[in-house]
Amino acid sequence: MRIPYVPNPPEPASPEEEAIVARIAARRAPRPLQPLDLALLHAPPVADGWNAFLGAVRTRTTLDARSRELAICRVAVCNGAWYEWAHHAPLAVAAGVSERALEEVVRRETLVREGEEGAGLGEKEWAVLRYADEMTRQVRVSEEVFAALRAVCGEREVVEVTATVAAYNCVSRFLVALDVGEKNGTGPDAAH
To answer: How far apart are CA 81 and CA 173, in angstroms?
Structure first.
């Protein structure tokens, strides 16, 4: 980490900051505060807004866990945010994404579905991955890639995929810039 983490447990300077720490701890429970939290808590109001926004993206959308975690993992790969990868690859596996599919997410520079199996991913998962890839690498998404996503997602899901990719681009850029978790220069962890 390029700046020190706040102490753990944090030492809030006011009742407002104490409430912020409590909200973040409640969202993380039963896990402890994460290095990301301990970096963000240098700026408690920013940490509070971050917690609310990412909490909604992670837990209050209708997007299925496979699609959500694949999108997050692809953002992590595109941005070299291996700390993010280490946290979300196991969640993707828990959601039913195969190890082979995760290997494809990591190793491919360009995402193209090959063959009938397509690494065990369906049309929706490939559409989400390609959308996350273009949105992360180029910001502007081609009509072809958008149409593929739109063919498998309703309007709400399109907004939720877009918000997820945007949010985790924010996360990965914060993680990499400050080297939160001290893993960002290491590459994907084979033991995810």
So the answer is: 8
